[in-house]
Structure formats: structure tokens, C-alpha cells
Amino acid sequence: MGGGENDHGQRPIGSGKAHPPQRETLRVAEAAGLLGVSVRTLEDRRWRAKHRIPVIRVGRCVVFRRNDLERYLDRHRERIGQMSIAGALP
Predict the structure, then answer these.
(1) Confidence at residue 77, expressed as pLDDT on a 0 to 100 scale
(2) What pLDDT is recorded for position 75?
(3) Which 3-state string (H, E, C) describes 51-76?
(4) Rounded Cα distance, 37 and 41, in Å
(5) Which of 18, 52, 71, 82 is deepest in the core (most CB within 10 A)?
(6) What is the pLDDT of residues 19-72, one digit of tens each?
(7) Cα–Cα distance between 33 and 15 in angstroms, integer?
(8) Which is nearest to 56 in space by CA: 26, 30, 22, 36?
(9) How far apart are CA 48 and CA 41, in angstroms?
(10) DSSP structural state of residue 44
(11) Cβ(1)–Cβ(9) under 8 Å?
(12) Multiple choice CATH, 25-88, 1.10.1660, 3.30.450, 1.10.3430, 3.30.160
């Protein structure tokens, strides 16, 4: 036996990696794709400051924490939901 097999020569369910783990940090192009904006928009410091999107600078390289971007999306979704409810009231 080898490679994580049990006594019957079978691999346990869930032992293979179905999906690679998600990285904690994203490069500009990856972050832009997640947010649904262009790379150029995300590279604009004023746009990032206006939308309060934190960055990590490593030398000249800028990276984003996945958790920060997901929190931004959650806040944005809530704001859209509140506006549509407010607009529906007479």
C-alpha cells in the first residue's frame, strides 16, 4: 500500500485536493477581476482612496488582501440593497 490508501487499497473520500487553496494576497490584475473593475481603475490611488480599498506595498509592487476586497464587496452590496429598498417606498 502507498499513497494514502486504506487496508482495502482505496483512497479515503475527500483525500484529494479538489481545489487549490486561495491565496491570501492578490496582484492588481487578480484584484481587479474580483472587483469587476479595470486594472487601470484599481491602479488609480484616488479611486482606491475614495473607495477605501487598503493596499500592501512591497517595494514598487502593490498587492491586496483577499479579505479586504471581499469586505469591500460586502459593504457595497449592502449599500445597493438599501438604495433599492429606499427607492421602492412611496
Answers:
(1) 78
(2) 85
(3) CCCCCEEECCEEEEEHHHHHHHHHHH
(4) 6
(5) 71
(6) 556 679 999 999 999 999 999 999 999 999 999 999 999 888 899 999 999 999
(7) 31
(8) 26
(9) 8
(10) -
(11) yes
(12) 1.10.1660
- For the chain, the straight-line distance linking the first and the last C-alpha, in angstroms and rounded, comes to 71
Task: Decide if pLDDT at 76 tops 60.
Answer: yes
CA separation for the pair 37, 31 (Å, rounded): 9
CB of 70 within 8 A of CB of 36? no
Q: Would you call 34 helix, strand, or coil by DSSP?
A: helix
Q: Among all chains, which residue has been given the C-alpha cell 492578490?
A: 26
- 82: cell is 438599501
Higher pLDDT, 69 or 13: 69
Q: Is the pLDDT of residue 7 over 80?
A: no
